[in-house]
């Protein structure tokens, strides 16, 4: 981790004791994990359909839980967290002292354009952030920059896209708007679309602000779950759309997580 993240941890430890990632998620401080997965809402016990994955429940709390997912000799620490940029910051930071080789965000994303179908597999090429939580990673809370563009590690993203292609998956690089509220986004859809965003979700802008501080390869993997432009709802999704979404999050994304964990997408 870099010096900024060390300082953040030092400040936090003045008021908190113990091995935080072990207490919250049950992750072993002695284990070197092939990847750490940060997944808002997604529990591997619920979404993984392939019996080749061995899932061990390590810790369960009201808003976050920890799991060890194993396959082909690889160990993945899976942190299921609550939604929102603030929750993402808190839970990523308490995992900063863990030993892991790759950092992967896994989650759902909504469509803003008819160009996207439910179940499309995507990764941000840029985040357009309207999330205030990111500002807590800066020096001054008052210097908020709405609609700031936040970029991932584009070289690593390119490598992961190629890795996906080589394994039969079409991983699309897209423009993602990040919101603080799902309920209120529908009242501002025209303004959001004017930014050039193609998809919308809550955490990846924050993820891409914080992840570089860990100094390991990082990537966000997203499954399109709904689309306001085509009328497929987030709540009440049924039939073929439901099947396509679950295939991407249950089959494609876990497979890619372990391929990245194994090959590093290099």
Structure description:
- By secondary structure, this protein is α/β, with parallel strands linked by helices.
- 32% of the residues lie in helices and 28% in strands.
- The strands form 2 sheets. It has a 5-stranded mixed β-barrel with strand order 7-11-10-8-12.
- Helix 4 packs parallel to helix 8 (204-210).
- The chain is globular.
Biggest pleated-sheet summary = 5 strands, mixed, barrel
- The end-to-end distance, rounded to whole angstroms, is 21 Å
- Uncertain regions: pLDDT < 50 for 5+ in a row? none
Strand order of the largest sheet: 7-11-10-8-12
> What proportion of the residues form beta strands (DSSP E)?
25-35%
Kindly state the number of beta strands.
Answer: 12
Radius of gyration over alpha carbons? 18 Å
Structural class: alpha/beta
Rounded mean pLDDT is 93
In DSSP terms, counting alpha (H) and pi (I) runs of 4 or more, how many helices? 9
Overall geometry comes to globular
Helicity level, as a percent range?
A: 25-40%
Keywords:
alpha/beta; about 270 residues
Task: Describe the secondary-structure layout.
Layout: H1 3-13, H2 20-25, E1 32-33, E2 35-40, H3 44-47, E3 54-60, E4 65-71, E5 74-81, H4 85-94, E6 99-100, E7 103-111, E8 121-129, E9 148-150, H5 154-166, E10 171-178, H6 182-185, H7 189-194, E11 199-201, H8 204-210, E12 218-227, H9 239-263
Parallel strand pairs: 1-6, 2-5, 2-7, 7-12, 8-10, 10-11
Antiparallel strand pairs: 3-4, 4-5, 7-11, 8-9, 8-12
């Amino acid at each position: 981790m870099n010096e900024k993240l060390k300082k953040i941890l030092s400040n936090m430890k003045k008021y908190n004791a113990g091995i935080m990632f072990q207490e919250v998620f049950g992750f072993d401080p002695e284990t070197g994990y092939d990847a750490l997965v940060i997944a808002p809402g997604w529990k591997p016990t619920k979404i993984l359909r392939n019996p080749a994955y061995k899932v061990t429940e390590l810790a369960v709390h009201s808003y976050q839980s920890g799991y060890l997912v194993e396959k082909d000799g690889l160990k993945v620490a899976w942190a299921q967290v609550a939604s929102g940029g603030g929750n993402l910051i808190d839970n990523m930071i308490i995992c900063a002292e863990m030993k892991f080789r790759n950092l992967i965000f896994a989650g759902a994303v909504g469509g803003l354009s008819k160009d996207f179908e439910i179940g499309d597999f995507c990764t941000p090429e840029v985040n357009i952030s309207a999330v205030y939580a990111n500002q807590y990673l800066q020096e001054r809370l008052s210097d908020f920059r709405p609609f700031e563009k936040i970029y991932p590690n584009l070289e690593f993203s390119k490598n992961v896209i190629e890795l996906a292609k080589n394994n039969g998956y079409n991983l699309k690089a897209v423009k993602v708007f990040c919101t603080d509220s799902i309920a209120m986004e529908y009242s501002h859809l025209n303004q959001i679309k004017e930014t050039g965003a193609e998809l919308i979700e809550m955490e990846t802008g924050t993820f891409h602000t914080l992840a570089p501080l860990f100094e390991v390869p990082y990537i966000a993997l997203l499954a399109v779950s709904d689309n306001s432009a085509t009328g497929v709802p987030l709540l009440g999704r049924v039939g073929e759309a439901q099947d396509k979404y679950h295939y991407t999050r249950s089959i494609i994304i876990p497979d890619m997580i372990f391929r990245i964990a194994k090959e590093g997408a290099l």
